[in-house]
UniProtKB/TrEMBL annotation:
Transmembrane segments: none annotated. GO terms for molecular function: antioxidant activity; oxidoreductase activity. Residues 2-165 form the Thioredoxin domain. PROSITE patterns: THIOREDOXIN_2. It comes from the Bacteria. This is Alkyl hydroperoxide reductase. InterPro entries: AhpC/TSA, Thioredoxin-like_sf, Thioredoxin_domain.
Length: 178
């Protein structure tokens, strides 16, 4: 399990338009918002990423860089970026499932074609949303076992305003006896 205020696993992946994404050198002023999504086959992911695309400039105003990541290959990632008309949101692809597991993501098996008629990969990761500090430590994490009921990006922007104004620390860091 990843722990707040502790270093996260490394993350270095190809992107569609920005060379290689390397979390250790992403140079966000305050945070990098890493959004792992299931892949092109997921209609809920498309809607979710469309909202993140829309709000990426608001995150940027707060010193937060955004990136969407899946285990899909380049072609399927290009299709997803086109589907949501991405202009601001970075997309990385070819996430190894072993790395997804290091991040605490759940792995699912294919059930064939989805409701939108796109084949699921044999294996893929379920969603996760992470805020990572410039020092590559975990500030916030939400990991899900299902595609439903994800963190709301607009609410996250409001929370960031509070966090920034109050220098609020990452929580959940205690590892001692209880």
């Amino acid at each position: 399990m990843l722990m707040p205020r502790q270093k996260t696993p490394n993350l270095s992946l190809p992107t569609l338009n920005d060379g290689t994404f390397d979390l250790s050198s992403d140079s966000a002023e305050r945070y990098t918002l890493v959004t792992f999504y299931r892949g092109l086959h997921c209609p809920i992911c498309a809607n979710y990423l469309k909202e993140l695309e829309r709000l990426t400039p608001e995150f940027a105003e707060r010193g937060v860089k955004t990136i969407a990541i899946s285990s899909d290959g380049k072609e399927r990632t290009e299709e997803m970026a086109a589907k949501i008309d991405a202009k601001n949101l970075r997309f990385a692809y070819d996430l190894p499932l072993s790395v997804a597991k290091e991040w605490g993501l759940y792995i699912s098996t294919s059930r064939g074609k989805t409701s939108i008629g796109i084949e699921e990969p044999a294996l893929f990761s379920e969603p996760g949303v992470f805020l990572i500090t410039p020092e590559q430590t975990l500030y916030y994490a939400s990991v899900q076992t299902m595609p439903f009921v994800r963190p709301v990006f607009k609410e996250m922007i409001g929370a960031l305003d509070f966090v920034i104004a109050n220098d609020y620390p990452g929580r959940g860091e205690y590892t001692g006896e209880v």
